[in-house]
Amino acid sequence: MKKWMTFVLAFCMVLSFLGIQGPVQAAGFNDVPSRAAKEVNYLNEGKIIYGVTSTSLVPEATLTRGQVATFIGRTLQLNGDQRDTRFSDLGKGNAASGFVESVVSKGIMSGTSDNKFLPSKAVTRGEMAVILSKAFGYSGNPEQALLNLGIASGMGDGTFGSDETITRADFAVFLARAVNPSYRLKSTASFNSKLVSTTSNLNIRSGPSTDYATVGKIGANTAVAGAHSIGGWTYVKAGSVTGFISTYYLRTSTGTVTMPPVTESSDSRLAGQTIILDPGHGGKDSGAVGNGLKEKDIVLKTGLQVNNLLKQTPFNVKMTRSTDVFIELKDRSKFAKNQGGDIFVSIHANSASASATGTETYYYSAANPHVADSKLLGEKIQARMLAAWNLRDRDTKSGNLSVLRENTMPAALLELGFISNSGDAAKMASDAQMNKMSTAIYNGILDYYKAKGYSVNPYYK
Ligand SMILES: [Zn+2]
Fold first, then answer.
1. Which residues pair with 317 in a beta bridge?
2. Catalytic site residues?
3. DSSP state, 44?
4. How far is the CA of 199 from the centre of ligand 1 (A)?
5. Would you say domain 193-252 falls under CATH 2.30.30.40?
């Protein structure tokens, strides 16, 4: 292989490892040793670690400081936007610049005395222990802390192997064990904090982000026991279920033990944002009818549920209708303007032949200042809706619809599914599925604001 080819290949590998080329969704790596397989899959599910290709993780490669900063930053949901850093050897053009700046400002990693970060330098096991200890707040000797917690085991020769460089596979194992105690070598989670849920229908997830699957649900005012927090999420035991709950929806009971507060301070700009929810049809206008359901009822139920979720955040939220009343199309966009809306989300269900199925989202693409944001809003919600119901992806597309065209703010119109299709309609008739869809739309709205640079991590459900 020519030298330049080696260089290009190495460069591409670094890019894809950092996730620049997008996540490898299926963790079907064929080169991960079995000792690390479940931990790698776990971190891949949380979009913390990606493969070099869809089948290759290159598990025995060394890790650089820039990569470690990226993985820690993703785990703690820090700001990873590429930007200028305080270091002379790390510019905005480096894919890791944002996470490096974030982990350094949190005191998790630091640079050299001559103002360099050395992003390409390989990390040793000893350095890894220090970084993990700082990232997760372990006290005492870092290597001893990892041994005590069952996160690391010593080398065969009885030492920690502090000076050995760490491989990608070993790092994945360490990190997964730090995040989720169920991966540790021994049971060391102490659920010492008495906590109470503050909202209904609260998801318990297998990891500390909404990328992780829901493993259980609890209602409001439910007592849970908390162990530790990661980013804006707390590892809890609720009955027989252990997993992560958004810390924002937990409070301490009786103040006996205080959990660390939500690590990300709330974004004061959120309170200045008004979200308009527009359940379609109503009153004399049933909208689509099929399989024993009326569109006007389904979309009102969805709107009320999304409203309930948003009401627990600093956002302002207004509904064009919250009861079964008829409203003219032009009055919906007029209402949005009068309320000073910042985004507009219209909720509908589709109808066609019995075989038509799927989820789609519309935005208005003719010249107006909000085309790009309308599309972004549609795409973010569409992605969440697809993940929720797993129906056919009918895409985010442009549509000349009154409530979109006449609006003066980023606006999207959602078609949850086809009321005329028995499979889609069965989802609409299910309370559990409707809750799932409403949570998806809510998280999609947060995704939009996150993409626009707002801090919304504490509010994901
Ligand atoms: Zn409709």
1. 275
2. 415
3. H
4. 30
5. yes
Query: Do residues 461 and 437 lie in contact, with contact meaning Cβ atoms separated by under 8 Å?
Result: no
What is the whole-number distance in angstroms between the Cα of residue 272 and the centre of ligand 1?
30
Ligand 1 centroid, distance to 241 Cα (angstroms): 39
Distance from the CA of 118 to the center of ligand 1, in angstroms? 56
CB 298 within 8 A of CB 416: yes
User: What are the residues whose beta carbons fall under 8 Å from the beta carbon of 159, sequence distance 6 or more?
Assistant: none
Measured in angstroms, how far is the CA atom of residue 295 from the centroid of ligand 1?
Answer: 7
Helix axes 371-389, 431-451, angle to 10 degrees: 150
d(CA 131, CA 63): 13
Q: Assign 100 to helix, strand or coil.
A: helix
Q: Let me know: does 238 contact 216? Beta carbons within 8 Å.
A: yes
| Nearest one of 231, 248, 260 to 102, comparing CA atoms | 231
In a structure prediction context, what are the per-residue pLDDT tens digits for the chain, which is 461 residues long?
Answer: 444 544 444 444 444 444 333 333 335 788 888 889 899 999 999 999 987 787 888 888 899 999 999 999 999 988 888 999 999 999 999 999 999 999 999 999 999 999 999 999 999 999 999 999 999 999 899 999 999 999 998 787 778 899 999 999 999 999 999 999 999 998 888 898 899 998 888 999 999 999 999 999 999 999 999 999 998 899 999 999 999 999 888 888 765 444 444 444 567 889 899 999 999 999 999 999 999 999 999 999 999 999 999 988 889 999 999 999 999 999 999 999 999 999 999 999 999 999 999 999 999 988 678 999 999 999 999 999 999 999 999 999 999 999 999 999 999 999 999 999 999 999 999 999 999 999 999 999 999 999 998 989 889 99
Angle, CA 199 vertex, CA 194 and CA 200 arms, to 5°: 115
Could you please state the CATH topology (level 3) that the domain comprising 268-459 is classified under. Aminopeptidase (3.40.630)
Q: Which positions ≥6 away from 146 have C-beta within 8 Å?
A: 129, 132, 133, 138, 152, 174
Tokens of 276: 């308009």
DSSP state of 325: -
Domain regions of the chain by residue span: 3-183, 193-252, 268-459
| Pairing relationship of beta strands 274-279 and 316-319 according to DSSP bridges | parallel
- How many angstroms separate the alpha carbon of residue 117 from the centre of ligand 1? 55
Residue 328: partners with Cβ closer than 8 Å, 6 or more residues away: none
Query: Is residue 422 within 8 Å of 356, Cβ to Cβ?
Result: no
Element of type H or E holding 173: helix 168-179
DSSP code per residue over 254-306: TTSSPPPPPSSPP-GGGGG-EEEEEE--BTTB--SEETTEEHHHHHHHHHHHH
Read off the tokens for 22: 């997008």
Residue 417, SS3 per DSSP: strand
Residues in the chain: 461
